[in-house]
Write a structure and sequence with these properties.
The chain is mainly α. The protein has 9 helices and 5 strands.
């Protein structure tokens, strides 16, 4: 249960980071989303007499607490965080040596995820990083699934713009359908990745891992390999810098597209709106699980790649020690 409580800490951290990121970058993302969705909106207005159908490509303000603007996607992430915290507090009361009921279910979830990550990262690395990878998986999963509850994204109000067009703005919106949320999680991982890389390798070791030539060579070939790996290192550094972008857009794009697909299926034939979306609804349940796994696995593998040589050296040393005996 100690591991479960540690997972809750990262959920709260992710939620707080999302609030700060959304507050600081909400206007920028909204402007970009307006520009990207401009052509689609004009086409929709022409077809439906000035009314824009479909979910907006940006989060909208629900209310404001001082300088902090609370959007509809933030409300969902806050609800998910509160739900996980309340569940953990309820489960952790009266912990028994032989678990049963909800305690057994909670420990099974955490232990299964820990063993799964342990097979990928190894014992040393999983002990250091499980609090983040396990926490981010459950947080993304429940946020994705909460966004599929009927009413989320479908109940709201219509706003009339100065040009006479109408736009639907939902009261609640899937948390990961907001680019601010996925960007906050990706940037949080990038910061932790830097910390873990320096802890495992040192500052010099990180640069050596990226830019230093691999293998042994002599003479001209050594100079040639240094030049080659320097160029490869530059490309690797660029790819590392773009990882937060790819992580955030991959999750955001899949969840946002899924929500719009469900909304389109509901409006395809109004009198069959209860039936047509059902197959796509179950598909989105699977997509929510897969996307949580993809985000967690990619971040775990990125961490392993920068730390794996330490484990390889440790295994080699252990194998040599066993061989002597």
């Amino acid at each position: 249960m100690q591991l479960f409580r540690v997972i809750l800490a990262v959920v709260l951290m992710a939620g707080a980071t999302a609030l700060r990121a959304a507050e600081q970058t909400g206007e920028t993302v909204a402007a970009a989303a307006h520009e990207v969705a401009g052509h689609a909106e004009h086409a929709a207005k022409a077809e439906h007499g000035g009314e824009h159908h479909g979910l907006p490509a940006y989060a909208v303000k629900v209310f404001q607490l001082g300088p902090i603007v609370i959007t509809n996607s933030m409300v969902v992430t806050i609800l998910v965080t509160l739900g996980i915290v309340i569940f953990a507090q309820f489960v952790s009361r009266g912990v028994k040596p032989v678990p049963a009921g909800l305690q057994n279910f909670a420990e099974w979830m955490v232990e299964s995820m820990y063993n799964f990550l342990g097979e990928i990262l190894g014992d040393k690395l999983v002990k250091k990083t499980f609090w983040f990878f396990g926490g981010i998986f459950f947080f993304i999963l429940f946020t994705n699934w909460l966004g599929l509850i009927p009413g989320v994204g479908t109940i709201g109000w219509k706003v009339t713009h100065p040009n006479g067009s109408h736009e639907f703005q939902p009261w609640l919106r899937g948390g990961n359908a907001d680019l601010n949320m996925t960007s906050a999680m990706a940037l949080l991982f990038f910061l932790l990745w830097i910390v873990w890389a320096i802890q495992e390798n040192g500052v010099g070791g990180v640069f050596k891992h990226i830019f230093a030539p691999k293998g042994k060579s002599e003479g001209f070939m050594k100079i040639f390999m240094i030049a080659i790996f320097l160029v490869v290192g530059v490309l690797e550094a660029i790819s590392i810098l773009f990882r937060p972008v790819s992580l955030s857009f991959r999750l955001y794009g899949n969840i946002f597209a899924g929500e719009n697909m469900l909304e389109s299926m509901m409006n395809l034939i109004p009198w069959l709106s209860w039936l047509i979306p059902l197959p796509f609804y179950f598909l989105e349940l699977l997509v929510g699980l897969v996307q949580a796994l993809v985000f967690m696995l990619l971040t775990a593998v990125f961490t392993l790649l920068i730390c794996e040589h330490e484990h390889e050296e440790g295994h080699a040393h252990a194998d040599g020690h066993e061989a002597k005996h």
